Amino acid sequence: MAKKIAYLCKGCGLGEALDFDALTDVLGENGIKEVKDAEVLCSPEALAMIKADIDGGADKVLLGACSARVKTDEFGFDGAVIERCSLREQVVWCSPADDDTQKEDRQMLAEDYLRMSAVKLDKCEKPVPFQLEGEVAKAVLVVGGGPAGMNAALAAAEAGSQVFLVEKEAVLGGFQAKMYKLGPQTPPYRELEDTGLDALIAKINGNEAIKVFTGASVDKTEGAPGNFTVALSNGETLRAGAIIQATGWVPYDPEKLAGDLAYGSSPKIVTNVQFEQMAKEGKLAGINSIAFVQCAGSRDANHLPYCSAFCCLVSCKQSMFVKEINPEASVYVVYKDIRTPSQSEEVYREAQRQGVIFIRRDETYPTISGSDKLTLKTKDVLLGEDVSLEELDLVVLATGMKPNNPVMVEAPLVAFGEDQDAAKALAEQIKAANDDWSILNLQYRQGPNLPSLKYGMPDSHFICFPYESRRTGIYTAGTVRRPMRLTQAKDDGIGAAMKAIQAIRAAEAGCAVHPRSGDESYPEFAMQRCTQCKRCTEECPFGTINEDEKANPLPNPTRCRRCGVCMGACPERIISFKNYSVDMIGSMIKGINVPEEDEEKPRVICLACENDALPAIDMAAAKGYKWSPYVRFIPVRCLGSVNLVWIADALSSGIDGVMLFGCRRGDDYQCHFIKGSELANVRMSKVSETLTRLVLEAERVQVSEVGITDADKVAELINGFMETIENVGPNPYKGF
Amino acid sequence: MDYKQDFAKEVYEKVDSGAEIKVCMQCGVCASTCPLREHMKYSPRKIWTLIRAGRRQEVLTSPDIMLCTSCYTCKVRCPRGIPVIDVMHGLASYALSQGITPREETAKFGSVFWAGIYGTGRVDEAIVPIQYCLKDGLVAGLKKSLGMMDIGLSLMKAKRLKPKMFIPPNIAIPPSHKIKGIKELQRMLDKAKALGARKEG
Ligand code: SF4
Ligand code: SF4
Ligand code: SF4
After folding, report:
1. Which residue among B82, B85, B86 has the greatest number of ligand 3 atoms within 8 angstroms of its CB, and so is best to mutate?
2. Ligand 3, atom 3: nearest CA belongs to which residue?
3. Is the terminal CB of chain A with fewer CB neighbours within 10 Å at N or C?
4. What is chain A's percent helix, strand, coil content, to nearest 5?
5. Do residue A528 and residue A644 come from a single domain?
6. What is the mean predicted confidence (pLDDT) over A542-550?
7. Is A458 part of any domain?
């Protein structure tokens, strides 16, 4: 039998705002007999008291004070399950209390939160970390021996890991080996510099912790973080704890520029990659006049829609190659915008100092004609005239980069819904869009490759989580992840190495990686009731769940990020975490006290994403916004973890409306768990059918996007929704 | 053929601070900060483009290179650290050395101003405008001064110009009082001019 104690804080104005005797009674009615209050709960004395109680055997502790997002150090007690009930942000700060009715509403709000917290505490168990069977593999496998891969290998080895570095070519180096020289890298940024490749390879070869496999590729990758088994094409089998894919880039196919930039019409029209090779082979003599054409296919919806972020730098550098041999040569760079961020600006400047002429064009491509000596005509927008460059010995097309990664798109929601024909058509469409080659050959139920974003890059959350792919423990680094220049690729490799090491440590400790780092809970499946519907396997954003021949889910907990999307997906509700379950949230909802219809006090719940919406709500409260005291927030790990049964629970217990606050969805999603917000939205669209069946208005359920910066829109959203609820009237199921 | 590099090289080598314009990135900050921009056909930025494009005639005959009032805003604000004003003056002086007068009035004013400094070692705020106006003869001079009446009145209002400045003995006619050591000053100026001419030559 658990020993539960609740502590209520009277500081920060809570003491004056609330009736503590009544709160204590409510806790008592909900199974917490021992309730203590403190003038200031975060004072050293009060903290010492809590600690002493925990040491004395209290294993479930409720803290009725401020938001769980603040004072995490003070209230971070070990040894007990801690539930923090936000009486400050979610009650006192945000509810108006100008008259007695409002004060009464506020008190009811506080009591409801305490009821929910008591239920939660009751249903929460202390998680037991998942342990892999056998020894955890601690080696880092790096696939791709270019700049990012080599630097990743070195960084991981220097941090104490065993490293396997696999390169498909016969030698290490990747694109760095194909380069003639680098642009100026060090102050005063005047000289071209050596690529530094030999020294780097020597360092790798000299490091005993790194085992290099050249001329090899990956045939098969099985397992999960902490336990990958990787078969190489050379017959070797490796065990690794985490994987870094640094497979670099491929140049944009210049044949596609035959129409726009006359590629192929003269041997004197070459790409930047070909030009680099010419430089390396010493074939630049005799150039008196040369033009570089920037954005050759880049930032063009018909070719590569994005900026490759390196070609401006490269043309500046390559123009210096020409000047190195012939300082008097006329060198032109015809550009749309010069994009040379950070240190590459120095290379741009040095090229200018050496007399390279930059000519700005508009969106239309220049016309290039001639065979031996070329003529380039373009609109010069800075001069405001059409200009013509003649007698050119060479024209270099600055083409962009594409990730060297097979495209794999995931259907947002295949198995869901009654419309199986549509689902099948979608599946076909997706299959056609996917490449049929692979780099890692993952033996995952969800496909052999890393899921890719819009442009085929295997990234997962561009803004917040660099290096993360949508397969836990597999990180991407360098130009495969997004276009970048060499110096960035180096740093990228180092960053990914650190992530890989973290993933291995997390697998060892049995806890989650980013973004729920350290979370020891994980989904458990009550398999007896599983109907093999496959929703969890297909909807998990991270490919956690494999399948046996009978379509039973086979979870790999070290691949799991603990988002709860599977829990939200499961129609049988058999997936739960020790401290987060369908039953727990359902019971919390049922714990809310719903007044009779004639009291005219509606009740609304708001399921709010913990990552973004909840902080925004806290901030709104801190900023002094006030909103209806009839709303109760329930934090969820991700909107994707919302199980439809909660909505049914709420509406059948007389709650008048349900709001869902989640992150932005769509192509530029901000969801920490990639698809959670998207999934929730699709699921809720199905809910309206159910509501109509129950003769309830569809307006009673509303999904809104609330980002972490949206504090200013929280109050408006809530009050707007309350108006809607007022208009549709009370829930007819009240009191049943 | 556009963008032949001969003229650009001529500017880099012969014009004071000319090589500095190589690093211009055409941001237009100079143009947008220049108080005289609306009187210019070509802003400094555009002048640099014309130089790169090889438009010798257009650049050296452009009155704009002689319109600069030396306010220094461009030089302070240019993100590439180009001494825009120095190059503008350099171009003007280079044009003169090539027998081209980009802007008649400025050239005239300059010669009066210069003659004053060279002859007496000082600038007399009353003498310079009188001489400038009288340079084309009495009638033309009176016409010109009437045309500049507005400016004169504004200057008076701002107390930059006082009527008593034009009344002897405040004004010496003919201008006579030279500074001490005028000979040394002249030697210095001769030397500086010779150095400048060597670059432009
Ligand atoms: S880096 Fe420059 S050339 Fe390359 S796509 Fe971007 S703007 Fe165009
Ligand atoms: S959906 Fe989320 S919680 Fe469930 S298995 Fe996948 S990563 Fe883990
Ligand atoms: S401010 Fe400087 S860099 Fe910008 S256009 Fe003018 S001279 Fe060029």
Report:
1. B82
2. B24
3. N
4. 35, 20, 45
5. no
6. 94
7. yes
Per-residue model confidence as pLDDT tens digits over A357-414: 999 999 999 999 999 999 999 999 999 999 999 999 999 999 999 999 999 987 655 4
Indicate the range of A91-100, A172-181, A726-735 predicted with least confidence: A726-735
All residues of chain A having their beta carbon less than 8 Å from the beta carbon of residue B50 are 383
CA–CA distance from A663 to each of A608, A614, A674 (Å)? 10, 11, 10
Output the CA B96–ligand 2 centroid distance in Å: 79
Residue B57: per-residue pLDDT: 96
Task: Give the pLDDT confidence score for residue A414 in this predicted structure.
Answer: 42
Interchain pair A388, B1: CB under 8 A: yes
A11 pLDDT tier (thresholds 50, 70, 90): very high
Average pLDDT in the A150-159 region?
98
Question: For chain B, which domains are there?
Answer: 5-97 (1.10.1060.10), 104-200 (no CATH)
CB contact under 8 A, B25 and A358: yes
Do you know the residue count of chain A? Answer: 736
Domain count, chain A: 5
Q: What angle do CA A253, A259, A260 make, to 5 degrees?
A: 85
Element (H, E) at B146: helix B138-147
Residue A29 included in any domain: yes
Say if A231 falls within a structural domain.
yes
Residues of chain A contacting B52 with CB distance shorter than 8 Å? 357
Taking CA–CA distances from B20, the nearest residue in chain A reads: A353
CB-based contact B3 A330, cutoff 8 Å: yes
Q: What is the ipTM of this complex?
A: 0.87
Residues A341 and A231 occupy one common structural domain: no
Which range marks the domain in which residue A201 is found? 140-248+404-509
B22·A353 Cβ contact <8 A: yes
> Within 13 A of A715's CA, how many CA atoms are on the CB side?
15
- Find the residues whose C-beta lies inside 6 A of ligand 1: A 294-295, 298-299, 307-309, 311-312, 337, 339, 398, 400
Q: What is the pLDDT of residue B174?
A: 63
Residue A380, phi-psi category: left (phi > 0), alpha (psi -120 to 50), beta (remainder)? beta
Residue A392: strand pairing partners: A374
- Residue A165 backbone dihedrals phi, psi, to 5 degrees: -115, 115
Backbone angles phi, psi at A141, to 5 degrees: -100, 125
Q: Nearest C-alpha to atom 8 of ligand 1 is from which residue? A: A295
Beta-carbon contacts of A321 under 8 Å, excluding residues fewer than 6 positions away, are: A180, A181, A192, A279, A284
| Ligand 2 atom closest to residue A640's alpha carbon, by position in its atom list | 1
Q: Are residues A194 and A333 in the same domain?
A: no
Count CA within 13 A, CB hemisphere, residue A13.
9
Q: What is the mean pLDDT of residues A614-632?
A: 97
Ligand number nearest CA of A400 is 1
Which of the listed residues A509, A542, A563 is the one where a domain comes to its end? A509
Number of residues in chain B: 201
Of all residues in chain A, the percent with pLDDT exceeding 70 is: 98
Distance from CA of B29 to the nearest CA of A (A): 14
**C-alpha to C-alpha distances, A196 to A51, A53, A203, A455, B2, nearest whole angstrom:** 57, 61, 11, 31, 40
Q: Mark out chain A residues that contact chain B at CB-CB < 8 A.
A: 330, 332, 338, 348-349, 352-353, 355, 357-360, 380, 382-383, 385, 387-391
**What would the two tokens of residue A530 be?**
């599983």
pTM: 0.90
Whole-number pLDDT of residue B83: 96
- CATH number assigned to the domain comprising residue A570: 3.30.70.20
Q: Which atom of ligand 2 is nearest to the CA of A472?
A: 7
Q: Name the residue facing B2 among A358, A360, A388 (closest C-beta).
A: A388
Nearest ligand to the C-alpha of residue B30? 3
Query: Is it the case that residue A415 has pLDDT exceeding 50?
Result: no
Chain A nearest-CA residue for B12: A355
Among all bound ligands, the one having the nearest atom to the CA of A560 is 2
